[in-house]
Amino acid sequence: MTLELYLIRHGLAGEHGSYANDDERPLTEEGQRKTRQVAERLHKLDIRFDHVLTSPLVRARQTAEILCAAGLSQSLEASRHLAFDGSLLDWLPWFDQWRQTGAKTLALVGHEPCLSEWTERLVWGEVKHHVVFKKAGVVGLLVPQTGNPVGNSQLFWLTPPRFLI
């Protein structure tokens, strides 16, 4: 038995360095529009998430809120695990508890390079720098219901936003 784990990079945000506190950098109008289009397409594809876990940074949180507003999930939670300094190994205990709820689909909304590194560790057990995550891009992984998901997950979807808009 496997679970579906979707990793989603935040949409297009304001220029890096243009805000005194980079954590507060929001999505641009174009970023909001494209993220809504991606979310609407995911909805049309009957993708739903039992839970959305997001970085607390503004641009990621806004992306997660757009996903929920499009009807992809009714459950949203912010987690420091998905911020820039978040660690996959630190997140795994949270994930182990979540798996025990019986839920089947989880979306993680975060940043680069964390999301591509997490994807590669989950699939290959190590970072190879081969996965490219575009803004508002989506990766889908099949993750085992029990046991260590690191190196034991399967990539089933890697889509840049242009294929969803």
What does this structure look like?
The chain has 165 residues and is α/β, with parallel strands linked by helices. It is built from 4 helices and 6 strands. The protein has helices spanning 29-44, 58-69, 88-99, 114-124, and strands at 2-9, 51-54, 76-78, 105-110, 138-144, 154-159. Strands 3-2-4-1-5-6 form a 6-stranded mixed beta sheet, with helices on both faces. Helix 2 (58-69) links the parallel strand 2 and strand 3. The N and C termini lie far apart (31 Å). The relative contact order is 0.23.
How would you summarize the topology of this molecule?
Layout: E1 2-9, H1 29-44, E2 51-54, H2 58-69, E3 76-78, H3 88-99, E4 105-110, H4 114-124, E5 138-144, E6 154-159
